Amino acid sequence: MEIQQYKQQKTVPTVARSFIHSLLRREEEKSERLVAYVRMLLAIIIFTIGVSIKDEIPLHSLGALYLCTTLSILYSLFIHVLIRYRGYKPLMKFISTFFDIGLLTVALLSFGGYRTFKAEAFLLYFLWITLAAFRFSLPLTIFAGILSCSSYLFLVGMSIFFQTIEIGTITESYITAKVSIANMGIRLCFLVSFSVFAIYISRVSQQMIKNTAFHQFHAAHERQEKEKVQTTFSTYVTPQVAKKILNEGTSAVGEKRRVTILFCDVRDFTTLSEQMAAEDVVQLLNEYFNKMVTVLNEHGGILNKYTGDGFLALYGVPQSSDRDEEMAVRSALVMRRVVDLWNIARAEQGLATIRFGIGIHCGEVIVGNIGSDDRKEFTVIGAPVNLASRVEGLNKVLGTDILITAEIYHRVRDMIRVKPQPRMKLKGLQEPVRTYQVISLKDSCEDNLLKSTPAAVTADPGTLVGSLIGNVDSFIKRIRRSG
């Protein structure tokens, strides 16, 4: 039922059918090789038994036995060579089944008289029907069942027509050379019943394989489509957010959680953009955002949204840790270092330099997918978000570049040097807010900051800029500490 529904889809029915067909084809090829091994082994065993009891078998029957076993061995070798050098063909299984059952019928017929119907070789019909079902092909199993029953009926008809057997009762068939019609009928009923059973098993097995193949294909297809969507979606939101939305959907139900918020904005961007061509402005912003987002990703932050020439970054979503505040501050310091080095490189090329302002705050906010039914945005809302935005704006007033609130400072004060700023009255808040300008990490943390500077956003050490990095860094630190 699921396969039929899936085939009705317009996107992948041909691919799905091709996948299932190729899977069954591989299984058929493996089965055909295995049947060839079984045929060869069985021929060797029968040949050995024939040699050991050759005095008890009529000469013409013994010759037929040797001929049939030799042909079986040669045919098995031929099938192996053919599959190896020419590849497997679906018709092979029908030819092999016809060969096996036909050869068995010829061997039984050559025994002559009552031996044709009392020989244990009759059981090989059941074996060939079983091996046909083992090949996971319903048509082949039907073919093997019909051919086996027809062959046995042919033996009965030929023996009766040419009067090579003497008919007797069931009891006489066990103690004399006579053959019972009822006994032959019972054998034929067993053969027919077994064929029907084998056909049913083959049908169920084939359906199970198709269902398994369908589910494997469907799962692989869904996984590929999900990865494709996530890759495309990650162009517009962060990979973490894309994964969360794809896994959990776009439910409007939000959740409250503690988050660290970082706002960053380019200073005097309006004036800067008026002095540049439009394509240069876009190129500048793209290069700038690439560097900033690289820093965010390497410090566990996620880019929530772009705000023109700035952005909002979050720490603590989708997963939170006890170092969210620390990683936000470290990100800001690395961003400062990256922009300083980038500005040196741009100045060397005669290009305009940029300055930014960063505000960091933390608190409990509402996190969720917010928007209309047609378009939603994964974002955060709440007073802490507004406060972080106001703190970022204070950089213009105070002449600073990185400001943190008291909530952030109390969590990271052991690792940073700061300069306390005067309490300021902010829009929407009744009480003045205390902020701290982040100067640098303390000496014990400096090495870690150097290690956390992304290599992809630093200057080439082989250039003049690269050779000046160490001196410039030291100079910048001295300036800021004195400030």
TrEMBL record:
The transmembrane segments are 34-53, 59-83, 95-117, 181-201
Question: Transmembrane helix: present as a keyword of the record?
Answer: yes
Entry keyword set: Membrane, Transmembrane, Transmembrane helix
- Mind telling me which PROSITE patterns this protein's record contains? GUANYLATE_CYCLASE_2
Fetch the SMART domains from UniProt: CYCc
Matches recorded under Pfam families:
Guanylate_cyc
Q: Which domain of life is it from?
A: Bacteria
Guanylate cyclase domain segment(s): 260-392
| Family annotation (InterPro entries) | A/G_cyclase, Adenylyl/Guanylyl_Cyclase_3/4, Nucleotide_cyclase
What is the name of the protein in this document?
Adenylate/guanylate cyclase domain-containing protein
Which species expresses this protein natively? candidate division CSSED10-310 bacterium
Q: Give the taxonomic lineage as stored in the record.
A: Bacteria, Bacteria division CSSED10-310
